Amino acid sequence: MPVVVVRHDQPIAEELEGARPGLSVVDADTRADALAVLPDADAFVINPTNWDDEYLDGLQPGTWVQATSTGYAAFPLEAFEERDIVFTNAVGNFGPPVADHAFALILALARGVPACLDQQRDRRWDRAVGDALVDLQGRTLTVVGLGDVGESVVRRALGFDMAVYGTKRDPDSYGGRLPDDRVLPADDLHEVLPETDVLVLAVPLTDGTRGLVDDDALSALPDSALLVNVARGPVVDTEALLAALDAGELAGAGLDVFEAEPLPESSPLWDRDEVVVTPHVAGRSRNFVGRFVELFLTNYDRRTADEAYVNRIV
What is the pLDDT of residues 232-248, one digit of tens each? Predict the structure, then answer.
């Protein structure tokens, strides 16, 4: 009987119960629970936050690890390959919800939603808040990373009648909505920063993207620009971001991801009026579990039929 171990805070295990004949589902609430049952597992469902390299000792050759995330920087890919462990991610599951969230952050900043919520709590009516609101139409948005999420951001930005640029490691492989002259190599990002009104980060965390948005990048942006990060926290140098906000060199930031998560209570980001903080939920929605279970079962069926996996990394 195939056994899948699920280590996740969402009810994925519950949804998988009975989804396929003979499939046994174990819901591992803790790291210890997972370690106890992994030696008998055929598949392991886990998110990067819960990954621990101790799990490697329990995974048998041929075991399949299915990440619930698109990003996989937390997973030991070389060790998987050495131990003959299959690894797949969930790319394709997050484009629309993450792009929706990116625009929720953009609109919150551009349309003064936090200030209006403060007024609502105080039962105060002051239309002067409208004097600083920003129209998106005609503004320039640059997306860093034109994968599934980045392309979903592009489609929404075009719907707002914005001018849009995007960066991609290999522009020749791009097949989305932007014309060729709006798709730049990743190394050319700084060329468009001076005309960028909204900078959206949608890249995976790699050695090349860690600290990508640093003092130089923030200085190149107009003082009126907005920064939105729905990628990974370390893509932004937090100290550089705080310095730019303190100096008035950036109008605001919408952040769903952070260098340290959970965001420490001591972080100055919590207290800034020009920063909107959300707790790494851009990929979440009421449809999250259903989307993931559909992907998992697709790969489960392919594994059973000895066919190629979807989104296989290792």
Answer: 999 999 999 999 999 99
CA distance 142 to 144: 6
3-state secondary structure of 71: coil
First to last CA, the chain: 24
Q: What is the pLDDT of residues 276-287, one digit of tens each?
A: 999 999 999 999
- Domain architecture of the chain: domains with CATH: 3-93+285-304 (3.40.50.720), 95-277 (3.40.50.720)
CB atoms within 10 A of CB 240: 19
Helix (H) or strand (E) holding 158: helix 148-159
Beta pairing class for 226-229 and 198-201? parallel
- Residue partners of 294: CB distance under 8 A and separation at least 6: none
d(CA 115, CA 126): 10
Q: Report which DSSP code applies to 271.
A: G
Q: Which residues are catalytic?
A: 232, 261, 280
Q: What's the CA gap between 61 and 80, in Å, rounded?
A: 9
Distance CA 255, CA 252 (A): 10
Sheet containing 198-201: which strands, arranged edge to edge? 183-185, 163-168, 140-144, 198-201, 226-229, 252-255, 275-277
What gap in Å lies between CA 236 and CA 214, rounded to an integer? Answer: 6
- pLDDT band of 1, cuts 50, 70, 90: confident
Q: Where are the beta strands (DSSP E) in 126-185?
A: 140-144, 163-168, 183-185
Smallest CA-to-CA distance from 226 within 63, 62, 113, 93 is with 113
- Show the tokens assigned to 281: 């939920």
- Determine contact, residues 297/126, Cβ cutoff 8 Å: no
User: What does the alpha-carbon distance between residue 298 and residue 92 come to, in Å, rounded to a whole number?
Assistant: 13
Q: How many CA atoms lie within 13 Å of 309's alpha carbon, on the beta-carbon side? A: 20
CB distance 193 to 219 below 8 Å: no
Could you tell me the pTM of the whole model? Answer: 0.93
